[in-house]
Design a protein that fits this description.
Elements lengths: L1 H5 L3 H10 L5 H14 L3 H27 L1 H13 L1 H6 L6 H21 L2 H17 L6 H5 L8 H23 L13 H22 L7 H27 L12 H16 L3 H24 L10 H11 L5 E4 L22 E3 L1 H4 L5 E2 L2 H9 L3 E6 L10 H13 L1 E8 L2 E7 L5
Parallel strand pairs: 1-4
Antiparallel strand pairs: 2-3, 4-6, 5-6
Length: 434
């Protein structure tokens, strides 16, 4: 998706953002510039995310260093790097690692700003967080977490900075609200997502307990680290989950930066354990090594195409084996046409629904013909290969989607079905011709 949009000429890209996906517009513009300079290549696509994740890890370490000392900072940075979510988005050509880095360094600027009320740090905080919000709107949820660590004497200054951030973000919000159908594919938050978050909350609270155990007094910086870590981990994710009760909006990657708070808490806890007796220190080191070893299979899996929700490479291979040149190739949701972005093109069949391609229509997936025209084109085919999302995923209920499903049900019969990660391929033929 990033390559497809960022590779367009600037006028075409600008027109596309006016119609759809403006929420990622700044990131696409950044990648457009990088592609112009270094060429359109997978390394150029992914390197910004790698560098951003490294910068975020450095920022987490700096926050830990400033609030709890060198060892806590180092441990927090290491924990951040090994977290599976960070490893995943550090290698993807998406904006989330960059947003995470910007929020982390905005948090560091805030920590320095509230320490001595420096005007330059407040300006840096405002600029960094506003940039993060312009790269992805949900970075604005970090404001709620940041508010927890601002002393009463500086609240007016913080509110002024927050107002500037919100005011700078407002035009993008207004545009993206008109494009809200682009998140219409999101499902309601699943029970396992709530369960996973609850489990991680338990881990965070346990880290707090260890970090403060045996200490009768704590410095202001140490208290700030606990509040900041908990706030950054709990508040953005919690708020997004609450918003998702009214409209499905939750994806963990939208608030990836929250794991920086968890890393800070775990780093402080590990630092506290290392202050204990020799046996406890040895046990902690062994436990850390075991935990890292246990994450190795996950880390390796995250670097394979099978780890993606849509394995375009596998899908393209199956379609090339299945589809004949005269077959109809029907995507049961227009958004599923994104699978055509695999290189080389997945299959030689004819797409009866296509009107114009993504580039000429200034859209993400292209446009489709009218429902009546689609039905006529489908009936002109003797065999159709349909591509759908797996069961349990929200099904598009537009007039076009209904025509596709009804025409297949009324005039064709299923000859075979194959499931590939992120997709279901079904071959249909006229009755008796399977």
């Amino acid at each position: 998706m990033t390559i497809g949009l960022a590779s367009r000429d600037l006028p075409d890209l600008w027109q596309t953002l006016g119609r759809i996906d403006a929420v990622h517009g700044l990131y696409y513009l950044l990648m457009h510039g990088l592609f112009d300079v270094f060429g359109t290549d997978v390394v150029v696509l992914r390197l910004p995310s790698v560098l951003a994740a490294a910068a975020a890890a450095g920022g987490v370490a700096m926050i830990g260093l400033h609030l709890a000392g060198p060892r806590a900072g180092l441990c927090a940075g290491i924990v951040f790097v090994v977290l599976p979510g960070v490893q995943r988005y550090a290698q993807e050509g998406r904006s989330y690692a960059l947003v995470c880095a910007l929020v982390v360094w905005a948090t560091y600027a805030l920590v320095r700003a509230v320490e001595r009320d420096r005007r330059g740090m407040w300006a840096a905080y405002t600029a960094l967080l506003l940039t993060a919000c312009l790269v992805h709107e949900f970075a604005v949820l970090a404001l709620a977490a940041h508010a927890l660590v601002v002393p009463r004497a500086m609240r007016r200054t913080f509110v002024a900075a927050a107002v500037r951030v919100v005011a700078g973000l407002a035009p993008l919000v207004l545009v993206s609200m008109r494009q809200s159908t682009q998140v219409g594919w999101l499902d309601a938050t699943k029970p396992d997502e709530y369960a996973h978050f609850s489990l991680m909350v338990g881990v965070a609270l346990a880290a707090v307990r260890i970090a403060v155990a045996g200490r009768r007094t704590r410095t202001a910086c140490e208290r700030r680290l606990v509040v900041l870590g908990l706030g950054l981990f709990l508040v953005p994710t919690g708020l997004l989950m609450l918003l998702a009760l009214a409209k499905p909006l939750y994806l963990d990657r939208y608030v990836l930066y929250g794991v920086a708070g968890l890393a800070l808490l775990l780093g402080a806890a590990f630092d506290q354990v290392l202050r204990r007796g020799r046996r406890i220190r040895a046990g902690a080191v062994v436990a850390a090594v075991i935990a890292c070893a246990a994450l190795v299979p996950t880390a390796l899996d995250l670097r394979t195409p099978a780890s993606r929700s849509d394995d375009m490479t596998a899908l393209a291979a199956v379609l090339r084996e299945t589809v004949r040149p005269d077959d109809g190739l029907v995507y049961l949701s227009v958004k599923r046409r994104a699978w055509e972005l695999a290189a080389p093109r997945p299959a030689p069949g004819v797409d009866p629904a296509r009107a114009r391609g993504p580039l000429t229509s200034h859209s993400l997936y292209g446009t489709e013909v009218a429902p009546d025209e689609l039905r006529t084109r489908m009936l002109a085919r003797h065999r159709i290969v349909a591509i759908a999302s797996p069961s349990g995923v929200t099904v598009e209920d537009s007039a076009m989607a209904r025509v596709k499903r009804d025409t297949l049900a009324d005039h064709f019969e299923a000859c075979g079905k194959q499931t590939v990660d992120g997709s279901v391929i079904t071959v249909y033929a006229r009755p008796g011709r399977c």
